[in-house]
Design the sequence.
């Protein structure tokens, strides 16, 4: 009997030791319920792998990511954005991911190509996460503002924002979240590309140069004027709430944000929200930005094979794709699960998201080999932020950014 108990204990220890734990890390709290549901489903389907969810605040997240470069302990699967990808990949901090032919063929090439270096894939993109326009239909109706149509223009958006800025029951209602529309960041850049912009860094041969051209300057001025000239938005320094919080509370008429915010709106059952088309400029088609976030495997992971298997499941399995689409989130194979997505958001004009998706832009997708990209973009953001917070004139901020970016780019390869 004693020998039998010892044998069973040994078998139990062997079984426990055979289970691989994968640490999954993300900074995006808006997806937490969906991510936890995905992980629970995956864990249930596996007998030898357990995935652990880690939600890490944005600032702390990149401190943790620094461990990838140092070669210390790290997570097994991590979110990565395209601006930071060149640095981590160039430092050897990411492991190449090998996918089978069927999976590779299923993934959209436009979203995987930015994460390929020397014919090796270092990141598998999560579903497309486009910048979108949301409207509070109740406020539109109350103020007699026409609901936006497919040919909505920037001037019409501005006119709407002016009518949607008013006092109600002692509370200030604003037309739009201009404080979030800094022209060099993804929300503001969506207006820039729609106005004909081609990118803020130009590559000629093997050299790079800043290109803060007249389109960028005009777009930046238009967006900045929403705060300081037209006063249809609170400024960054005056705002006591973020734009999305005001929209959620029914105190903002138009919100430019990401498609991933859908789950947030369910927190206010009285919010009558819907998607709206991105406004056009000069008769051009809207070209909103798509955030090209991807899942990567740090080189320091001790479970690379299991991590790659989990990434494949997250991005291509029917179960994962349906779960996301049914929650109003775009899965990686978004076009194949369009019907489930639209069914999850009845009466919200969600078709707009798919109408604009083919013409959307991945920022800096052609600059993935530029190692100094994060530093260059940081300089631009710092200078533009001075203008957005009212601490510098916009032309001065753009001029300084152009000079400092060019100096950094001369040192970059």
Sequence:
């Amino acid at each position: 009997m004693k020998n039998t108990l010892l044998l069973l204990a040994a078998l139990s220890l062997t079984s426990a030791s055979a289970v691989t734990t994968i640490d999954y890390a993300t900074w995006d709290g808006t997806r937490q319920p969906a991510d936890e549901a995905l992980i629970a489903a995956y864990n249930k389907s596996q007998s030898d792998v357990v995935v652990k969810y880690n939600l890490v605040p944005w600032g702390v997240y990149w401190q943790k990511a620094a461990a990838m470069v140092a070669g210390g302990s790290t997570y097994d699967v991590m979110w990565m954005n395209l601006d930071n990808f060149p640095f981590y990949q160039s430092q050897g901090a990411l492991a190449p991911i090998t996918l089978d032919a069927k999976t590779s063929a299923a993934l959209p090439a436009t979203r995987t190509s930015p994460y390929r270096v020397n014919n090796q894939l270092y990141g598998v993109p999560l579903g497309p996460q486009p910048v979108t326009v949301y409207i509070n239909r109740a406020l539109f109706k109350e103020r007699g503002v026409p609901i936006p149509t497919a040919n909505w223009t920037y001037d019409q958006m501005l006119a709407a924002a002016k009518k949607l800025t008013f006092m109600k029951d002692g509370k200030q209602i604003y037309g739009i979240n201009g404080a979030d529309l800094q022209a060099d960041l993804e929300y503001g850049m969506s207006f820039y590309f729609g106005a004909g912009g081609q990118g803020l860094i130009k590559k000629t041969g093997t050299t790079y140069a800043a290109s803060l051209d007249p389109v960028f300057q005009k777009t930046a001025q238009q967006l900045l004027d929403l705060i300081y000239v037209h006063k249809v938005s609170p400024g960054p320094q005056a705002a006591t709430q973020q734009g999305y919080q005001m929209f959620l509370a029914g105190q903002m008429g138009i919100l430019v944000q990401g498609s991933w915010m859908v789950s947030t709106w369910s927190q206010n059952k009285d919010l009558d929200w819907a998607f709206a088309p991105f406004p056009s400029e000069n008769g051009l088609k809207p070209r909103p930005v798509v955030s090209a976030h991807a899942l990567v495997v740090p080189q320091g992971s001790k479970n690379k094979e299991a991590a790659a298997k989990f990434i494949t499941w997250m991005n291509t399995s029917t179960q994962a794709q349906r779960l996301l689409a049914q929650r109003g989130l775009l899965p990686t194979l978004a076009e194949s699960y369009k019907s489930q997505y639209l069914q999850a958001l009845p009466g919200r004009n969600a078709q707009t998201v798919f109408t604009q998706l083919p013409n959307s832009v991945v920022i800096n997708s052609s600059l993935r080999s530029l190692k100094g990209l994060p530093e260059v973009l940081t300089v631009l953001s710092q200078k533009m932020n001075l203008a957005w917070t009212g601490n510098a004139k916009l032309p001065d901020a753009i001029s300084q950014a152009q000079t400092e970016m060019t100096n950094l780019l001369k040192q970059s390869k």
